[in-house]
Design goal:
Blueprint: H1 6-18, E1 36-38, E2 41-43, E3 49-50, E4 54-57, H2 69-74, E5 80-85, H3 91-103, E6 107-112, H4 122-129, H5 132-140, E7 146-148, H6 159-175, E8 182-185, H7 193-206, E9 212-217, H8 228-240, E10 245-249, H9 264-273, E11 277-278, H10 306-314, H11 319-322, E12 353-355, E13 377-378, E14 385-404, E15 409-417, E16 424-429, E17 436-455, E18 463-470, H12 472-475, E19 479-481, E20 484-488, E21 497-502, E22 508-513, E23 516-517, E24 524-527, E25 530-533, H13 535-539, E26 544-552, E27 559-565, E28 572-574, E29 577-581, E30 590-595, E31 603-606, E32 609-610, E33 617-620, E34 623-626, H14 628-632, E35 637-644, E36 652-658, E37 665-667, E38 670-674, E39 681-686, E40 692-697, E41 700-701, E42 708-711, E43 714-717, H15 719-723, E44 728-736, E45 742-749, E46 756-758, E47 761-764, E48 772-777, E49 783-788, E50 791-792, E51 799-802, E52 805-808, H16 810-814, E53 821-827, E54 833-839, H17 840-843, E55 846-852, E56 858-859, E57 861-862, E58 864-870, E59 876-877, E60 881-887, E61 895-901, E62 909-920, E63 923-931, ...
Parallel strand pairs: 4-5, 5-6, 6-7, 7-8, 8-9, 9-10, 10-11, 20-27, 29-36, 38-45, 47-54
Antiparallel strand pairs: 1-2, 2-3, 12-14, 13-18, 14-17, 14-18, 15-16, 15-17, 19-21, 21-25, 22-23, 22-26, 24-25, 26-27, 28-30, 30-34, 31-32, 31-35, 33-34, 35-36, 37-39, 39-43, 40-41, 40-44, 42-43, 44-45, 46-48, 48-52, 49-50, 49-53, 51-52, 53-54, 55-58, 56-66, 57-65, 58-65, 59-64, 60-63, 60-67, 61-65, ...
């Protein structure tokens, strides 16, 4: 990849800063009704520029209809969902998945996931898209749909093959009548942005519609050489060639190691700065085994956590803070025409039902006579099973309609009875095909039973949507045509609903809606055989499907099913995001255009606080002016003002507040205060033309003259004020008349000062023994004794104290076993001090250095590396050397050890796990590394390296923060006293825990 020059980078940034913050508009195109691409941007059919900021969701494998996922994702403010789909998905299911996404005012981008990494399957994906039933679904939704041909098709694909394969795919899809924007993923499992840059312009030219976008999946971890700067460079180059790019997938890590980290914060920031869409992977749950990619715990907005919460809500460049839904997506879809009710005269309508069994309470027998084809009865998984309808009295029957669900009977009987006890077979079916069965027969009875003998699929129950029963009496009933209708509550589209009545000698006595009578002349009128339901009445009804029952003087009452919808556009504001600079001379009112779309405007809120109309903002016609004086009082960062219409999704104005005034500074920016030794703290100010307005502890203002004083450019924080604060970290905010605040971080402690010894280590030479002198810094404390393990040294025999000098007598040291001695100096207050005394021969022999191969706090494998150097004059046998690494097991699982490399041979390096009988601070176990005789010797002035790993048998994580030997900063070889080494079992270096 060619790197751009610094000048080019600045030019791109300058162009970005000059772009208006409001929504760009392009001329509308009447050729195609939906979204289309111009240059590198996507526009809707109203000409509004749209940057896709949304989510990936594995719809096909979780909630196939998108319920409730879509509504939960919509709470983030996302404007789009990349819908994971499969070749197994039916046209009907696809229609539902797309419609439900659009119903939440989000742009659906449907993709097939079946060819991930497999280039040979591209034609199979295209064959799915150009199936007539799938094309019909796409065309039905083409005003707002995008089609992502396939997820990450192909691994290593040449540019020649990539061009040829996708050109063929594009042409076939266009010829089939698909004219929505087509999205093409990069190869190499979506990660190769360079193939998009090299092939993208060619494919745009090859597309008859020139309506393509390209998607890179930034699974770009540190381990593969990707850095934040690499992300910036690649995005910058795509902008330079005007490539219509989106980042279709990315996560925060490739795996749970430091090298698996992905620069996702840079992706968020620079996608926003370069107006490139992004869709993180994945809403969750069900990313198994990579559960760390789940943005939610259970798929709900409330369980967003970790990086998911950051990318969706809290980051300045999160979806919540930058996504805008185009106006064309803010209206609701029209209501769908209800299913045609059963023919009028249905003797079974509303009659009581008895069922032999129920799959659950959701599927009761009453559902087969409620007149709805959206509810059903379902039995248990047994044979036989039946449902009985009580017609109320003996009826003549000549026709039965059965509307089966997919779980139908291949063998069943229709039986009748006058008493519900003795039954007569009137129809027997041995080759049932399900769906809708229209059966002619001749029978009479009060009770009609459908008796199932054999199910279509042994793993399915019997299941029926509805049953219609007809006879001579049915023909005498009144009817209505049509019996279904749709009403739109949009004030611009409201019309009366008119139907034709066929009374059939009966008189209409009234109309009821769920038992409530309509008022003749007000709610409806009749002219001849025409019935008109008034739009004023319909407009007052709730969204959903309602059933009107026409009550005649005789016969079975006919019904009209009316689906009530509302395509009134939601209220909106434009622009939705603006910049405000607090710098003097740069401040100006913020003016936005507001469209209420027949909704009542109640005011503007900053969180829960109402802005004051006339003071904080004004409204003239459709222009809303937010006063600069109000904005200037708000803190730096993103201000979210909600325009309250009492809707689920009220429009939000996002104001990015900055201040380019010269900043003041303070020195130092951190300070310590010990409450046992109180002293004033002096802070030096550099004003840069500003003045200090106040100092804040949270929201509490410090009092000038009492809590602090100011003289010239020095602020003195008074010890009396500081003594009254609780121990811990306290940030104090220095607020100036202009520019950014300065933060002083105070570390307040309330501890007894510790005593110290100098030096902390000493060498004792047995061949030329001398006393060892130690200097004490008592800090107000008193030395109460010295211990060697549990044995106390005897004053004036083993050691002497004169003033602040302790002398350890050579006579005492000569009595000790050769090796390293650890003497504990015990003081009456504060912490003990430790003196390490080593034998001269050992101290000058073997040095052990340590390098930490895995520095993340959570890791499934610990990777220490060691370097042993012989600094003495004599050769050391490695078989006599051992090294101990101390840690906590964080579990009881067995552990495994590997030596990855050593010049003495990996097989000559041993590792033994030892569980400590008496666990100590930050350790309950240690790994002892040793050498076999085959490792040989370590000559004078020579070194040897050992690189090892260890892990639990189930690869669960260690928490390294509580490991005694863990060193988070050891990224090169260092000496580390929490690693111990031994020669012939005698402590050589390090401090045991």
């Amino acid at each position: 990849m060619k790197k751009r020059h610094f000048l080019f980078s600045m030019l791109v940034l300058l162009l970005f800063l000059l772009l208006p913050i409001g929504q760009a508009m392009a001329a509308t195109d009447t050729t195609y009704p939906g979204f289309r691409v111009e240059g590198r941007f996507l526009y809707d059919n109203q000409g509004e520029k749209v940057i896709l900021y949304g989510m990936n969701k594995m719809i096909i494998w979780t909630d196939k209809d998108g319920i409730p996922s879509y509504s939960e994702i919509a709470k983030t403010g996302a404007n789009s969902v990349r819908i994971v789909w499969s070749l197994e998905g039916s046209a009907e299911d696809l229609d539902t998945a797309i419609r439900n996404c659009r119903s939440e005012n989000m742009i659906p981008m449907i993709e097939l996931h079946d060819a991930t990494g497999d280039w040979s399957k591209l034609p199979t994906l295209v064959d799915y898209w150009i199936r007539p039933d799938i094309v019909e679904v796409i065309q039905k939704h083409q005003e707002y749909l995008l089609v992502n041909i396939g997820n990450e098709v192909g691994n290593q694909v040449s540019e020649t093959d990539f061009k040829a394969g996708y050109k063929t795919a594009i042409l076939k899809m266009r010829e089939a009548g698909i004219h929505v924007p087509i999205v093409i993923d990069a190869s190499s499992y979506g990660q190769d942005i360079n193939i998009l840059k090299s092939c993208g312009p060619y494919l745009i030219e090859a597309d008859p519609d020139s309506n393509l976008m390209f998607s890179v999946h930034m699974w770009w971890p540190k381990a593969w050489g990707y850095t934040a700067q690499r992300v910036i460079d690649e995005l910058e180059e795509s902008v330079a060639i005007n490539l219509p790019l989106i980042v279709g997938e990315f996560g925060h890590m490739w795996d749970e190691t430091e090298s698996g980290q992905i620069p996702y914060k840079t992706i968020l920031e620079y996608c926003y700065k370069y107006e490139i869409g992004y869709l993180p992977w994945e809403w969750g749950p069900d990313n198994n085994p990579q559960t760390f990619l789940d943005m939610t715990t259970d798929g709900t907005y409330e369980t967003l956590h970790g990086w998911g919460l950051e990318v969706a809500v809290t980051s300045p460049y999160s979806i919540s803070n930058i996504a805008e839904r185009p106006v064309s997506m803010l209206s609701n879809l029209p209501a769908m025409l209800p299913a045609e009710p059963l023919p009028s005269g249905n003797l079974a309508l509303g009659r009581p039902v008895t069922a032999s069994s129920l799959e659950s309470s959701l599927y009761s027998g009453a559902n087969i006579t409620d007149g709805s084809l959206n509810s059903r009865w379902a039995s248990t998984l047994t044979d036989p099973n039946w449902v009985t309808i009580d017609l109320g009295s003996v009826k003549e029957i000549n026709r039965v309609l059965i509307y089966w669900e997919a779980a139908y009977a291949t063998q069943y009987k229709i039986q009748v009875s006058n008493d519900g006890i003795t039954w007569s077979d009137v129809y027997i079916q041995y080759g049932g095909k399900g769906k809708t069965e229209d059966i002619s027969l001749s029978a009479a009875g009060r009770y009609v039973r459908i008796y199932g003998m054999h199910r279509y699929n042994n793993s399915w129950p019997y299941s029926i949507y509805e049953v219609g029963i007809y006879g001579p009496e049915s023909a005498l009933s009144a009817s209505v045509s049509p019996a279904i209708a749709v009403f739109d509550k949009n004030p611009e589209k409201q019309t009366d609903i008119t139907v034709t009545l066929s009374p059939n000698t009966h008189t209409l006595n009234g109309i009821k809606n769920n038992g409530v009578a309509l008022t003749s002349g007000k709610d409806y009128s009749i002219t001849g055989t025409l019935l008109s339901i008034k739009k004023a009445y319909l407009a007052a009804m709730s969204v959903g499907t309602h059933r009107l029952t026409l009550n005649y003087s005789g016969g079975i009452a006919p019904v009209i099913d009316i689906a009530i919808g509302d395509t009134t556009s939601s209220p909106y504001i434009r622009p939705g995001r603006v910049e405000f600079n607090k710098t003097a001379g740069s401040q100006s009112d913020v003016i936005v255009t507001m469209s209420s779309n027949y909704n009542t405007f109640y005011g503007i809120k900053n969180d829960t606080v109402n802005l004051v109309s006339g003071t904080d903002y004004t409204i003239a016609d459709n222009k809303v002016t937010i006063k600069k004086e109000y904005i200037a009082k708000q803190p730096l960062g993103l201000l979210r003002l909600t325009f309250d219409f009492k809707k689920n999704f009220n429009p939000v104005l996002k104001i990015n507040i900055s201040d380019t005034s010269p900043n003041s500074s303070i020195a130092p920016t951190t300070a310590a205060f010990e409450k046992r030794l109180p002293a004033d703290i002096a802070i030096h100010l550099t004003f840069n033309g500003n003045t200090l307005n106040t100092i804040l502890n949270g929201s509490e203002q410090l009092i000038l003259g009492t809590d602090y004083t100011v003289k010239y450019d020095v602020v003195t924080l008074k010890k009396e004020y500081l003594s009254g604060l609780s121990a811990g970290i306290v940030p104090l905010t220095f607020r100036f008349s202009a520019g950014s605040d300065c933060i002083l971080t105070l570390l307040l402690t309330d501890t007894v000062p510790n005593s110290f010894i100098t030096p902390k280590t000493a060498v004792f030479d047995r061949e030329a023994p001398i006393d060892i002198s130690i200097q004490l810094s008592l800090n107000g404390n008193t030395l109460t004794g010295i211990k060697n393990g549990s044995a106390a040294l005897v004053s004036d025999i083993d050691y002497s104290l004169s003033g602040t000098t302790v002398t350890i007598f050579k006579e005492y040291l000569l009595t000790l076993t050769p090796g390293t001695v650890r003497l504990i100096f015990d003081f009456d207050a504060g912490e003990d001090a430790t003196l390490i005394i080593s034998e001269k021969a050992i101290a000058e022999g073997l040095v052990v250095e340590f390098f930490n191969g895995t520095k993340t706090t959570q890791t499934n494998s610990i990777v220490p590396k060691f370097k042993l150097t012989n600094t003495g004059a004599e050769t050391i046998a490695l078989s006599e050397v051992t090294i101990r690494y101390y840690f906590t097991k964080d579990g009881i699982q067995p552990q495994s050890f590997w030596c990855d490399w050593s010049p003495v041979g990996s097989s000559n390096v041993t590792g033994t796990f030892v569980t400590m009988d008496n666990p100590k601070n930050h350790t309950d176990c240690y790994l002892e590394i040793g050498f076999t005789a085959g490792a040989g010797n370590l000559a004078a002035n020579q070194s040897v390296e050992v690189q090892i790993r260890f892990a639990k048998a189930d690869w669960t994580n260690y928490n390294q923060t509580n490991d005694y030997s863990f060193h988070k900063d050891a990224d090169t070889y260092v000496t580390w006293d929490k690693i111990t080494s031994y020669i012939s079992g005698i402590l050589n270096t390090g401090i045991e825990p």
